[in-house]
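Weekly structure sync, notes
Attendees: PL (lead), two postdocs, one rotation student
Agenda item 3: pending single-chain targets
PL asked that the sequence for the first pending target be pasted directly into the notes so everyone works from the same version. It is reproduced below exactly as submitted, 163 residues in total.
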Amino acid sequence: MLQAGFQKLMERLLPEVQAVYGARLVSLAVFGSVGRGTPGFDSDLDFLIIARDLPPGRMKRIREFDLVEERLAPLLDSLKGEGVNTSLSPVIKSPEEASLGGPLFLDMVEDARILFDADGFLAGILARLGDRLKALGSRRVRLGNAWYWVLKPDMKAGEVFEI
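Predicted structure, written out during the meeting:
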């Protein structure tokens, strides 16, 4: 029942994001515990929106995203009745910002569920990062319910490398 609730939410997420961002939407991907398929009853829904022509600054972007959250509010309320007490945790980036990468993308290489990807934009970023991690011999090490990355196991003191 838990998985079904999150599945319902993911099915509604894309059309609501498309309704707000329209043709500006480049990519939408779910990550974190829901992306891995291991959510708990109180897991939040972590997702990445990549869109063109975003307003400057985090707060203006969140205000724009509030329209998506308003559209999903009835579903979120009904899911609480089914024992799924979740909230939305969007990360909103422009294509230029996403192209710069960052720690967020490390876990997305293995765990992202891409719901929309115009011209394979996000898939390309994740594939290039995955190839680089493989070339470095990187590995994700699980430690209980958490993990960390060993990015370059054979790194020498003072060595500098790029991902």
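Discussion points:
- The chain has a mean pLDDT of 93.
- The first helix runs from residue 2 to 21.
Action: rotation student to compare against the earlier draft before next sync.
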